[in-house]
Amino acid sequence: MTHSINQQSNYQKLTAIVNNLIDNNPLYLENLNRQEMIDNINHNFDPAFVPDVNSISEESLIKRIKSILSLHLVSGMLNDFTPEQMQIFDESVKRGS
């Protein structure tokens, strides 16, 4: 019983954070599928692995979710690169290492 209450509470909290981050970032809003991101975040914070999201500070939770959204944003952008653009990107990453 407590597990399902925590699961519902976690889902609501995580969904609210995802919605807020997407609504307040034009890049997220334009390039990410809201429902896919909500599903992904809730999967990443599955109650089997994170039983109580409330044990994580709000600031830390937002930072973690923002990192996941940013990763999806960047990976989506890389999919749109031409082979030439991808080569330039790869060379830039190698020089930065």
Summarize the model shown.
The protein has 97 residues and is an all-alpha fold. The chain has helices at 2-23, 26-31, 34-44, 58-79, 83-96. The protein starts with a helix and ends with a helix.
Sequence-ordered SSE layout with sheet pairings:
Layout: H1 2-23, H2 26-31, H3 34-44, H4 58-79, H5 83-96
Helix pairs in contact: 1-3, 1-4
**Rg on CA atoms, Å:** 16 Å
What is the molecular shape? elongated
Q: By helix and strand content, what is the structural category?
A: mainly alpha
Total DSSP helices: 5
Q: What is the N-to-C order of secondary-structure elements (H for helix, E for strand)?
A: HHHHH
Helix amount? over 70%
- Poorly predicted parts: none
**Sheet having the most strands:** none
Structure summary, number of beta strands: 0
Strand percent estimate: under 5%
Distance between the termini: 49 Å
Note down, in words, how this protein is organized.
By secondary structure, the protein is mostly helical. The chain contains 5 helices and no strands. Helix 1 (2-23) crosses helix 3 and helix 1 (2-23) crosses helix 4. The longest helix has 22 residues, at 2-23. It is elongated, with a radius of gyration of 16 Å.
List its salient traits.
single chain; 97 residues; mainly alpha; 77% helix
